[in-house]
Design goal:
283 residues; Multidrug-efflux Transporter Regulator, Chain: A, Domain 2; Multidrug-efflux Transporter 1 Regulator Bmrr, Chain A; eight-stranded antiparallel sheet; 38% helix
Length: 283
Amino acid sequence: MAREPTPELLSSGEFARRSRLSAKALRIYQGLGLLLPLDVASPSRYRRYGSDQLPRARLIAMLRGTDMSLLEIGALLADLDQEPDLASQRLKRHLHQLEAQHTSQRALIGHVQAILRKEDLPMFTIRTRSVPARRVMSIQRRLLASETDAFVLEAKDVFANHLGGVSPTGPFTLIFHGVVDHENDGPLEAALACSDLVAPSEFVGIRTEAAHEEAFTTITKAQWEYPAILAAYDAVASSPEVISRPGRRLSCREVYLADPEDLTDDELICDIAYPLGDPIGPG
């Protein structure tokens, strides 16, 4: 049998040039285990790569060009080493996420265009309602936007275990006591209405939220996807109902009608709600 040719060893600089990756990127990928040099010479610590690693390096560069995260790229490469079909399926899911994000961005841009043109915003119908005082289970955290999905799953699981089969008395709600995005960490509160029989625990607080009126709009799952949801928040926050009644004591919130996993893009998922301040009297 013919022996496999020994791959040519390349300096990190030459490998970077051929793979169209920067030296900084190579160091990052090495640190994450995505692309390890074949040889690290001591004590100089010069790195050398095999020429047969170039296809993998170029694949990583192309995947980064699709806005795939390094964590997801690592998972795809692991799939590729085991079963190429799994890697292909992962890439298809990433494409679907990109298309959904593009649709979401188009929706938000359409909302901004309507503002710039001083047009009505027919996409959202703003209504008001009275919400009675209610007792709620509560879990509050400081976290960034990237951590919210895991927090929601955890909170729902903790609430369900705490109720022990007893039905909640109101919808699951996320209450934003501060900005939650890629730079700001809230805090964010998960709340679920419960009966007087439910007691607090080490992990679940109990509080009573005051009766109030709130302005809200109900959105579909497609409108709920980030960043399209920013348009819904803006529509309610800038509505005459909210502007005419400032000074609210309670924070804005998302009041869920159903679990996102159970819905298609056109189905209603939640209310974006802003509690209202006291009515302004005459004079």
